[in-house]
Amino acid sequence: MAHAVTADWYGDPTARRLGRISLNPLVHIDPVGTVLLPLLGLFLGGFVFGWAKPVPVNPANLRNYRRDFLVIALAGPASNIGLAICASVLLGMVPGGLGASDGASATIATLGFAMLQLNLLLAVFNMLPIPPLDGGNVLAGVLPEDLATGYDRLVRPYGFLILVVLMWSGWLYRLIGPPLSFLMGWLLP
């Protein structure tokens, strides 16, 4: 939803017109990426991987395509960081924090910790500079235009394959583990 709101702010109403500015998760479901692939991974005992329906952005509606698309790409990870900060604040308000032992406090602490961890994981993972992840789009927005075009042509067709190899080989956690641990240590009350 963060991508859709930001695209709308920057002049592209495409996602809004398609009903994508919504907290209803059903409008963001991609049949393959949200349902089929995660279920296959779960049942086959492999890694679980998936995605939401991509947010459509019409470049013709943006005033400065490269800058605006960079900001739209950053909106997703920024929203994850914002939600992680909210979870950290919530955890800080729970009597006893993660060590809470009474039912309601322990439940809120567990949910807050899961919200903190999941949102930081999503933010760090999505900032990997591999298209179609947000980090790939951010990198394309900060590189000089000729380098961005070359990078996009070279890496985008293989982005999904690169991610699968990183997951399968264990290198994915080696890449995202250190920044994830740093952010968890910084935000965990």
Can you characterise this structure?
The chain is mainly α. It has nine helices and no strands. The two termini are 28 Å apart.
Task: Give the topology.
Elements: H1 2-9, H2 14-17, H3 31-44, H4 65-93, H5 103-126, H6 134-142, H7 145-155, H8 159-169, H9 171-187
Helix pairs in contact: 1-4, 4-5, 4-6, 5-9, 6-7
Comma- or semicolon-separated keywords:
0% strand; globular; 189 residues; 9 helices; mainly alpha
Quick recap:
With 189 residues, this protein is an all-alpha fold. The chain has a domain of 124 residues.
Span of the ends, CA to CA: 28 Å
Computed over alpha carbons, the radius of gyration is 18 Å
DSSP strand tally: 0
User: What is the beta-strand fraction?
Assistant: under 5%
Q: What shape does the CA trace take? A: globular
- In which range does the helix fraction lie? 55-70%
Low-confidence stretches: none
Secondary-structure-derived class = mainly alpha
The H/E string reads HHHHHHHHH
Mean pLDDT: 93
Helical segment count: 9
Oligomer: single chain
Largest sheet: none
